[in-house]
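hey so u asked for the seq, here:
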Amino acid sequence: MSDFPEDYPYASVEAERRIKTVTTIISFVSVGMLLVGLYLALLTPSIGPGSLLTLIGFVALIFLPFIGKRMRNAALAREAGQDA
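ran it, structure tokens below
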């Protein structure tokens, strides 16, 4: 059984593939920034830049679901405009 209701709005296969690719890249970059920032802040004397990098990485991870949702909504709107 699916976790989503039957009427969950998915975009086309190509759009979903692009959305997954972009969100995966953003996720890897964000986790990298978070880990490098934590390393700098906790294990080196560079507390300021490390804290800033950690904060940016954390915020990027928090906004990742919203980015994916906006990309999906834009793809759905573009596909609805092409069908009309």
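The chain has two helices and no strands. The two ends are 33 Å apart (CA to CA).
lmk if thats what u needed
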